[in-house]
Structure formats: C-alpha cells, structure tokens
Amino acid sequence: MRVAxxxxxxxxxxxxxxxxxxxxxxxxGADIFTHVYDPSAISDVIKKHRVYTTFIDRLPYAKRMYKxxxxxxxxxxxxxxxxxxxxxxxxxxxxxxxxxxNSTALHVxxxxxxxxxxxxxxxxxxxxxxxxxxxxxxxxxxxxxxxxVATANRVDDFAANSLTVxxxxxxxxxxxxxxxxxxxxxxxxxxxxxxxxxxxYLMVGELVSYKRPDLAVExxxxxxxxxxVIGGGEMLERLQKMAGPTVTIMGPQPFRVLQEQYARCxxxxxxxxxxxxxxxxxxxxxxxxVIAFNRGGATETVVAGKTGIFFDTQTVDALIEAVEHxxxxxxxxxxxxxxxxxxxxxxxxxxxASFVNRSxxxxxxxxxx
Length: 369
Prior knowledge:
By secondary structure, this protein is α/β, with parallel strands linked by helices. The protein contains 15 helices and 13 strands. The protein has helices spanning 15-26, 44-47, 62-65, 73-78, 122-127, 131-151, 163-173, 213-223, 236-242, 255-264, 278-285, 298-301, 316-327, 333-340, 345-360; strands at residues 3-7, 31-34, 51-53, 87-92, 106-111, 157-160, 177-179, 201-204, 227-230, 247-251, 268-270, 290-293, 308-311. The strands form 3 sheets. Strands 3-2-1-4-5-6-7 form a 7-stranded parallel sheet, sandwiched between helices. α12 links the parallel β12 (290-293) and β13. α8 (213-223) packs across α13 (316-327) and α11 packs across α14. The relative contact order is 0.11.
C-alpha cells in the first residue's frame, strides 16, 4: 500500500512528533504532509521521508506564526491531493484529519486531542488573549468547530492516545476510539543508586498556563523546599521573578541534563492536566515517583501508592499536602521502572499495527457496488 501521514505542523520535537517518528519507522516508504515544516527543528528519522507542505508554509513568517493562520488550514488541507494513497494516517492535534482521501483509501486518525483551542481549553485561551484576539475568537471558533465535527466523518477509525482523549472524541465527534498510548523511549532513562538521589523535586515541561508551573513554584516557595524547573515558554520570565531562594528555574536544557535531573530528583511534580503526558513516564523510567494532579493522562500512567500519588484540587495547599505525604512514603524505584516499561515504543508500534490491520481487514479498503 502507498501510505500518507498527515501531521499538523513540524516545527519542533514534542510528544506528537515522537509518535510521528514511530509511524515513520513502521511505514518507511510513507510520504508526510504538513502545514508548516522547519527541517532544522526535526529529527533525522522524519527527515528521511518526503515531506510536502500546504500553502500555509509559504505565507509570511509561517514557521513562527503558524497558529495565526489556523482559519486557513481547513482550506489548505482540502487542497492536498491524496488520490494515489491506499492508507492515510492523520496525526491530529491541530487540523490534520480534515483531508479528503480517495474513496477506496482507508483513513485512520491517531488523535492526540481534538483541537484544544476550540474545544476543552477554549475558555483558557480566550481569557489569556488580547482584546483583538478575543473579538475574533468566537466566530472563528464556531466556524472551526463546525468544520471539525463534519470532517470526523472522513475518518474510518479513530485511535486515541488516552482514555481522556477517547472521551473527548466521543463527546465532540460522537465517535468511538481505540486507546493506544503513545510511544515513550524508556530505554533512554535509567535509575541511579539511592545514595545519588538528591533532595530536590523536579518539574519538566513547556512553561504555559494550563500546565500550572506557577502552582509548583508557589508551593515550594511556601515550603522553602528545593524545586528545579526545566522548560521554556511564555511564562519563563514570570516564573523567574516568582522563584524564591529554594526554587531554580533552569529554562530549556539539553537532553543529557534532563536525564540527570530525572534520575536524581526526589520526585517529579506534575501539576497540570495533560491529554496523556510523557513526562511522568520518563520520570518513572528513571526510577522516580510522581506527584500528579488527579486528572487527565497521568491517571492512566501513575499508580497511586506504588509509583506516585495524586492531589485532587489545583491549589497550593493540596500540592503541599501531597509533597508532605510522599515524604512519609517509601516507594520502590523498580516498581516505577516496570510501570514505565508498559509504555515503551515497541508496544505502541505493535498495537498500532494491529489497529490498522483490523481496520483494513488485512486488505486495502474496497468500495463495492
């Protein structure tokens, strides 16, 4: 079969692009279609494939301001010619699934989440936007929601990266989805002896409001306990100003530093709600426990009382109570490593291959009559 993979945009290597890497290994002859492509920010695994872009890539400052062109992306997707492909895989988080495959092709969608900015996180994006954006958002979001729901019918089968996302797919699209957790390269992380574990806690991720890094900084300021924060984003400067003497805001760091911090932290703090959340799995692969907000994908990866604990409300008091609770626990690093291994890349590839095979019945889709 000729295979096309549709990915929303290729401007960095985050969780969605790690999934794309695994798909590239599964389908080495696949062509990739995307709205915007920055080869300097993409792995060699992906760059081995032919990458085609929509007209969005040729608009001014597209590689930096691609989200400003969101209203044009439905039109751009529908201009992509997929007539020669038998299998179409859309990787959905931004607009990707709205392509038009040929009538005999199978279209499966691996959904990281329905577009957050028009669905479950619309109000958060609206509240944090400037005046002009707030004036434009309601009509544009209405148009995009209508298009997004309509194009769900262009997908033969959905896979979701978590139960959380499967529920969104059911709520917004009225479609069922098979849950296939995303791949995590757990082999890249290793525990260290207990004697090398430090007394600091760790937060890792993009520093944006919905991940609630401010909650972690404020809690550790109040406790006068050590916290290291790794990541970049729009809140970096604000957090640097907030941080007390026991909180270190490191900003973006190379992978080797991340590996070392994972292995030597007392525990990972994960105060936001994520669709899946690869960071807690990476921490567990390093043998470290996780303190997570009791919502979203972390509830499907962290095992309470065995590989970490949860707190139920996004408040400073609740997070402090969880940290104090963890300090009284004696969790075994081996349990965390074993749990993380359940999300390794090989398992994703095996499950996704089975999903596609069931969708095709072992053969390319054929329309009769």
